[in-house]
Model the fold of this input.
Amino acid sequence: MILQQLINGLALGMVYALIAVGYSLVFGILRLVNFSHGSVYAFGAHIAMVFVGMQFGIIPALILSIIFTGVLGIAIDKIALAPLRAKKSKAIAALITTIGVSYIIQNLLMIVFGSQTKFFPKLFDYGNVHIGGVSISTTQLFIFGVSLALLLLLTFIIRKTKIGLAMRAVEQNPKAANLMGIDVDFVITFTFFLGGASAAIAGTLISGYYQVVYPTMGFLAGLKAFSAAVLGGIGILHGSIVGGLIVGVSESYAAAFLGGGYRDAVAFVILIIVLLVKPTGLFGKKGVVKV
Amino acid sequence: MLAVKNLNTHYGNIHALKGIDLEVKQGEIVTLIGSNGAGKSTTLGTITGLLRATSGEVWFKGENITSIPPSQIVKKGISLSPEGREVFPALTVEENLQLGAYVRKDKENIRTSYDRVYELFPRLFERKKQTAGTLSGGEQQMLAIGRGLMSMPQLLLLDEPSLGLAPNLVVMIFDLIVSINQQGTTVLLVEQNASMALSIAHRGYVLETGKVTMTDDAKILSDNDMVRKAYLGNI
Done:
């Protein structure tokens, strides 16, 4: 039972990690909590549902959802956030804007798809694998594998590629990055694309797990993933991954041992405890030192 | 090589540059001296596009580069080592240098540029895997200059390279500026340490509250009574 819930929790946690990474990436570059991210995730799930419904097959549907949702991420920045940066408006204005954008996306999904809960086919379902007393579904393995591959890919992009180096440079000192010849606007655009793309994958995977899609699905998932990001130290990639896994596993244990009513609360309880002990999150550093 | 014509820059309502004219010829070290708030850094900021000129022009090698964004300026062959060093603290020395070469496409030759920077600053080679935030002030200044050289600029702009450094390090940094210049890079040097700056420069400009009040050969400026009183601290 304990091991079984750990497996369930890890699969779920990997998806939270994927969403949390989206918060972290944008926060790292802009020092902005992008509260529209949960709705972006719901958007990704709906797009995947559309293409799965058109018999594209899951992988092409996933890829199309990545593209559409990545572009949505870019559009949010270009239409709503970039103009605020250009006017050097207060940080709170951008924050409130992201909340507004979140509802705009959510309501558009309701208008286009209806607000009812819709069916999403189970992903990669070939029954269960039994190891010892633990039963792992192939869906869970698929979720775990895809998320892991993606998180590794993101880490590789940020640690080893030229655009990743540019992202880290912009994160630390946008002015100096500009002087190096880095197009800061492009780096921001690219970051929003990565955030949107990982939200699309997370949305698709979770829909294939619970087999439901609905416009407000991003609200709670977004808040939990945000907690995961803060828990691990927002802006720090591996922190978000660990945070996601902690939230996923604890949710799974809470559902099993405390009853379903507590499953959603436990992520926030852990968040509050961690922040009381270590306000910067598990892997967080005190603000970057500029000498 | 660089010609600044009647340049005006504002910070909000403050008229920071009031019609600056200056020229830097190929192969020279030219220095801008002046006290705090005279407009030295503002001049460099406006040349590199970090600040927008309200009027006036900046020409580089026969091309008007007045309102080009900073990320494009470096491609034209101008590189700025900014005041306060502005290194990337959480990145390694090597990554900082790599960012200096960000706009370059000639991968094979970039290796040579690393070697050149490491030859000029052996300390950076010793610390290439360390994060820049752990370096001392002097080492960070070396990194900021080295990073500026990585784009192989024809014109290197240095903003207060001696700021906050111990006197022996200041001498070393100025010696290196001379070597960099002798290797073929033209230098525009902004300094509060006027005596050091005039000792290595070919020509100098004196800035006061946003205007050029004097310009001449460095030797003549350092013998000038007014300059000596105001900036060299001896009478």
